[in-house]
Each structure stands twice: as C-alpha cells, then as structure tokens.
Amino acid sequence: MSKIIENNNGKYDDFINYIREEERVYLFLGAGFSKQMGFWLWDEFVNEVIEKFENLSFSIKEYLKRMDKKYALDYLESIDEDKFYQIVDNLYNEKEAKINTEIINAMYQILHDDKFKIITTNFDKIFKKKLDIEKVHLNFNPDKKINYLHGRIDDKESLILTQKKYFKNYLERNSPIKIFLTNVFSNYPVIFIGYSLSDYEILQILYDTKKSGRNRYVLLPEYNNNKDYNSILEKIYKENFNLIVLKYDIENKGYDALISYLEQINNLLYPKNTSLNAKEEAENAK
C-alpha cells in the first residue's frame, strides 16, 4: 500500500471501516478540490476579479488585494454591480471551457453512490454537468445530492461573495445555512476535502456540535517541512472541533497527490472496481 495511506498509524483502516458502516456521509468540498480541476483558490479568484476592473488605479488595486477579500468584493460590487457579476460569470465560463476532471474520475464510485452527499463552498457548475443536477435550491436539504452553501455561478441571486452577504446568511437568527450545517454536523459523518477551515462562521458551528459523537475528518497535505505545523493543527482540530486529521504526502507529487489519495480511498471502499475500471466508467459517463 502506498505511502499516502500507510503514514497515518492505522487511522485509514478505522476511517474506511467507519465510512463503510455509515448510511450517509457528507463530503465537504472547498476551493482546494476545485483547484485540482483548474479553478482558483479563494485569494487567487478575488485577485483576478480585482484586475478585471481596469479603471481602478494601481494603488487601489494593491490595497484591495491586501485587505480582507470579502471586503474587497464588497467594494467592487458597490462601484458597479452589473460589471462585477459579469466579470465573475466570464471568469468562470473561461475556466470551465478547459476544465480537468481527473479528480472527479478518481472518485467516480464515491460521487455516484447515493450514500455520499456533497456540501461545497465552490460556485462552479461541474457537478451540475457530471451528476446531472439542473437547479440550485436555496432551501438547504440534507437529502439533496449536493448543497451549494454559497450558491452557483449560473444563479446570480444565490451567490454569497461579499461580506454583507456572509453576515446576512450566517449571522442572522434562524439562518438557513446555520440550521442546515448544525443538522449535518450533529447527525452525520463529514469529510473535509480541499477546505482550509478558515471560515469563522463554519468553525463556530463545528465547535458548537463537537460533542455530537459523529466522526469528522479533514484531509491535510503534508511534506517534510510542515510536519511540526501539522502536528499542532492536529491537536487543535481534535480538541476544538472533534476533527480527525488524515494526512497525505505531497513531498514528491505536490498537491496533485490529492487525486491519487482520493483514488485509493475510492478503491478501498469499492474493491471490486479497479482504478482502471473506475476511469473507464467515468469516461463512458461523459
């Protein structure tokens, strides 16, 4: 078995067995997942939007890049809302025209098994195409295959990009997102993939539900020079949020190792399907 799996002192055996026994499991997909398909990390995306506002001075652009990204988007939306959303839409359409779906093919069986539900903070339409999901429903529902926490690019009204929308959707009393996530985190296992765990609003819900008894896992990249840092995170995540860290080695392959790692998990959960068969099925499904 490869280093990606064997370097966690038996954690993966426990993880695979636990996931096999559960009737429903949530995959929480962040920007690091979409990055593998050719999209941006959050900061990269915001900086791209800033650069598209060609009438802004160099100084203003530099200040916007250094400030909190949600506030930067607040400012851009306020000066020209139509242009702002047109830029966002154009950027995503350009990326989707040349997308790499290798990471989706690597976990083909997982994504097509109805026991696995998806929560994502990403805006792209890839799962709409790959899983044949036509509409965005803002009434969050644990039974849906995928819940877009921050909307989807083809539905402007659903998008949560700016700070004021974050406040409205996370901090207001009886917020639908908060109710939905509290339900999920309290009652089901969750696997965080490509998600930085940097959103305070989501961390608060994880903290409030940490005694639920449900296992939560976070996939964490590791290389030789960040092992001590990861050991600190591992302790903090476990004590504060009851999160179990699963590390994967990126020393040689870089962040592309995530694809190999997910493919191994897919094949451990579905041993009758070799990775070759999984890829062939994925290609045939296109």
Distance between the termini: 30 Å
Number of strands: 6
Major sheet description: 6 strands, parallel
SSE order:
HHEHHHHHHHEHEHHEHEHEHH
Structural class call reads alpha/beta
Radius of gyration: 19 Å
Helix content: 40-55%
Q: Which percent range describes the beta-strand content?
A: 5-15%
Q: Based on Cα principal axes, name the global outline.
A: globular
Enumerate the spans where pLDDT stays under 50 for 5 or more consecutive residues: none
The strand line-up of the biggest sheet is: 3-2-1-4-5-6
Name the CATH class of the largest domain: Alpha Beta
Rounded mean pLDDT is 89
Task: Tell me what the CATH architecture of the largest domain is.
Answer: 3-Layer(aba) Sandwich
Description:
The two termini are 30 Å apart. The chain is built from 16 helices and 6 strands. It has helices spanning 3-6, 11-21, 31-35, 42-52, 58-66, 69-79, 81-96, 102-106, 108-112, 126-130, 163-171, 176-187, 200-208, 227-241, 257-269, 275-285, and strands at residues 25-29, 116-120, 146-148, 190-193, 216-222, 243-249. The protein is globular and about 55 Å long. The protein is α/β, with parallel strands linked by helices and 286 residues long. It folds into 2 domains: 3-39 and 100-285, Rossmann fold (3-Layer(aba) Sandwich); 42-96, no CATH class.
